[in-house]
Design goal:
By secondary structure, the protein is mostly helical. The chain has one domain: Hydantoin permease, CATH 1.10.4160. Helix content is 80%, strand content 0%. The protein contains 19 helices and no strands. Helix 1 packs antiparallel against helix 12, helix 5 runs antiparallel to helix 17 and helix 8 packs across helix 13. Bound molecules: 4-fluoro-L-phenylalanine.
Length: 459
Amino acid sequence: MSNSNAERETWSTRIGFILAAVGSAVGLGNIWRFPFQVGQNGGAAFVVMYLAFVVLIGLPAMLVEFVVGRRTGMNTVSALKEFGSPRWKYLGGLFVFIGFVLLSYYSVIGGWVLRYMIGSATGSYMTQSAGSYFSEVATGFDALALHAVFMFAVIAIVALGVKRGIEFGVKLMVPAIIAIFALLAVYGYTLDGAMDAYAYYLSPDMGYLLANWQSIVPNAAAQGFFTLSLGMGVMITYASYLSEDENLAVDGVTIIGFNTGISILTGLVVFPILFSAGVNYSRAGAGAVFISMAEAFSSLPFGRVIGILFFLTVALAALSSSISLIEVIVSYAIDEFNIQRVRATVLIGTAIFLLGAPVALDPSGLDTHILNLYDKLAANILLVIGGLLLISVVTIFHTDKALDEIEKGVGNLVWWGHVWLWIVGVPVVVVLGVALTLGIVEYVEFLRGDFIPFVQEYL
Ligand code: PFF
């Protein structure tokens, strides 16, 4: 059973909470996933849909998680049992499951980032074609070893606890990420291809958007949840460590503002570098950023130094997101099974490492079929289901508790609160239902078209 709330840790400052949430949001989603999603889904047209999802669905979805987390002060499973009814604990269980799946491949990509950081320092990727370098390092022993190193770092931070580990870590990492990226964006601006890059990235083709909405909608929804760390209880867990009554809406807007700003900043870093190096990455998949950035750094002035800085920043961003993913599971294990934090973190981290091993050893190499199997399942299906059910439990089934909690730190909302909940409860749920259906259809097509033939070839 749950420990009493008195024993639970809390954030030491409000800014600590905001930085931890920003640190969770800003990660490989902004830097690795966002650019190839933009590339595969029509450039700026995708950016428009993604921004709409972030603002119209991301903000309410984040508030809903804050409400459940702060009201209950519990891990996701107990929080949903308490906020909803005993049945809703299964949704909390789903969140724990999503945490395992998501972090298992996220950490493999974290390992790629470490590999490229080392590669920038030694110059190893500069002596061969970027594509062949990627297929050498993306799967196999190197990938597995660096996946282990990355998980080790995650375990080390989370084992130290909420204040000494997570909060201390993000206070160093988040400002460093912003400072380095701002510098790199200025550098991007000085490059020859900068203006073309801005045009590609920032001028949407509405005709394309209308013609392709069936594939853009589910991918934009998935990217929106992924980038904001929503749909699997991270924000429930982080808000459960809040001690005072704060204005949750202001915190939500701040966090989303930071994350969106950093996504856009990432585009301002990545696209000018790619364009000026003449790299076409739009048809590449999960390896896109690695292949193209390596190619770019090989030919650009000061490429090695910029490369080290770039991949170091990405590694920090990935780390601050990973600690939030594992914390969902760790806090559940501590509360429910009374295990010590260090033990829980080591056990869970090891299990996640094992689950990610097939991704690191994927025999399809550049095609990354196993990675796609995990990523499409986690982002396009599981996070969207999680977000959809969570919004339903709060805005449709338990409106009174939700209103009461939102009003703390804000004041009496009168009828506005009900209007807001209705707006979130009905249209958002419908849109997410459509996105989920389209996402499932796409996943089945992926299984039939790519994954099953791949398995048949290797078995
Ligand atoms: N938001 C993180 C990123 O953009 O890299 C990834 C992530 C963290 C997704 C936590 C989901 C989550 F619950």
